[in-house]
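ok so I'm stuck.
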Amino acid sequence: MARVINAAFGIGIAVLIFIVILLGIQAIYKEPNIENFNCTYPFAIPAYAYDISSCNENISVKECNALIKEKRNDSEKMQAGYDKCLKEFQDAEKIYGRNVFLIANIAGIIAVIASLFLLSMINIAAGTAFSGIALIFYGFARGWQGTDDILKFIIALIVAIIFIILAVFANKKYGKIKKKK
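replied:
not stuck anymore, here's the structure
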């Protein structure tokens, strides 16, 4: 029964630490919001839809052609403005994703390191370690599109090396604790 309770507390600690850190990131470092970029979608009729049938019967063909050209130009300018604004938002999203990638990986490594100091309380140590692993996974998933492949490789390599070193340390420490019993 004690093992089940330890497992439940370990899982609960992992989930709660993960949620608290994600909420902390969201509270301190706001995600870009498209509304803040004032991107207004041009709901006007698309430029290709303007033709002679859209002109009033009371104007000449020359006036109609000039009106069509003006409407097409206006529509194209509106679309170009929206496209530019949308690209700025997408670029900000990529930068945000890359930064969250870095923040989550750092927080995950810190959580895993902290778990080593808690090995005497195995459920707390396991929960802290699992939350760190989840944060690292989340960081990679969230920042995959906005992070350069070389940076992802370097961070993954560093995380792998740190995990191997920490696992060796934990095995040595846990082995000593187990031998004392």
